Amino acid sequence: MSAFFSRRTLGALLLLPLFAAPVQAAEQAVCYNCPPEWADWGTQLKMIQARLGITVPPDNKNSGQAIAAMIAEKAKPVTDVVYLGGIAAGQAIEADVITAYKPANWDKIPADLKDPEGRWFTIHSGTLGLFVNTAALGGKPVPQRWADLKNPIYKGMVGYLDPTSAAVGQLSVMAVNLALGGSYDKIDAGIAFFKDLQKNDPIVPKQTSYARVISGEIPILIDYDFNAYRGKYSDKAPVTFVIPAEGSVTFPYIMGLAKNGPNAANGRKILDFVLSDESQAQWGNAFLRPVFAEKLSAEAAAKFLPAADYARAKPVDLGKLGLAQKSIVERYKSDVN
To answer: What pTM was computed for the model?
Structure first.
């Protein structure tokens, strides 16, 4: 009997660590507006998992939807970091949904590409233009100007993201407006253009539409150079990028630490990582212009349009654009929709 209990006790002791040891939860964090199909976030999320051991689920919100969700969740925040079009920086600050954090390499960021208090900072930028699936044009010429998009031959073929919520949609209105002689505080030219464009039955999605251009469902999309280059060089699709003859803008994308996020420590690690040499080089390899320009490799840069084309694209004034954001949304709703 004693031997029986000895063996039984020994067996229990051998099994005990399997059940008594606490199961360590996997490190995680949430990033709003980090869609795998946009700006190479798919690769970055894998790198964050591999380098930091932090799992970040994909999130397909746009900038406006991300801020709206953070406002709705103020009492019990869900996200830890947020990625936004630069136009949304002021809105995020005004809504009090982001908080100060100056990540590693903060001092290297140009002053006009970060908030002095650390509530947001640029990680990369893109140039707005025409992302065109040449095969889907059905023999029609590749448009070279903003004005070309109103040509009836492109009826039902032109797309742009919804300016009522997507940062790239709002930027599209302002880019056209500035190219056609408007200013940051006078947007009549841009609104008139998009009102006229309605005659051509444009496609106006709310979410990133990269796959729809690659498939040819949207033959012409007002979008960024990095998506077009990705389609051409990574996915080998029959696509090209055009910086319209009238001009365009270069636009920064930013990140910030969510206020009272549930995994704030991991959020800070992610913000450190996206400014690391490795991450910045990868943004460049994905055809975005990293905020640290020297991290864009010569090999990647050689695949961009010539410098003469980029001379038509001017850096956007984030402060003035932010002040115009509300007007863009309201005028689009009242005059275009």
So the answer is: 0.83
Q: Does domain 126-247+312-336 have CATH number 3.10.20.580?
A: no
pLDDT per position in the chain (337 positions), as tens?
Answer: 344 334 444 444 444 444 333 334 479 999 999 999 888 999 999 999 999 999 999 999 989 999 999 999 999 999 999 999 998 999 999 999 999 999 999 999 999 999 999 999 999 999 999 999 999 999 999 999 999 999 999 999 999 999 998 889 999 999 999 999 999 999 999 999 999 999 999 999 988 799 999 999 999 999 999 999 999 999 999 999 999 999 999 999 999 999 999 999 999 999 999 999 999 999 999 999 999 999 999 999 999 999 999 999 999 998 899 899 999 999 999 999 8
Asked if 31-125+251-310 and 126-247+312-336 have one fold, the answer is yes
CATH number attached to the domain at 31-125+251-310: 3.40.190.10
Contact present, 305 and 244 (Cβ < 8 Å) = no
Domain ranges of the chain: 31-125+251-310, 126-247+312-336
- 3-class DSSP state of 204: coil
Q: Is 9 exposed, middle or buried, given 0-12, 13-18 or 19+ CB atoms closer than 10 A?
A: exposed
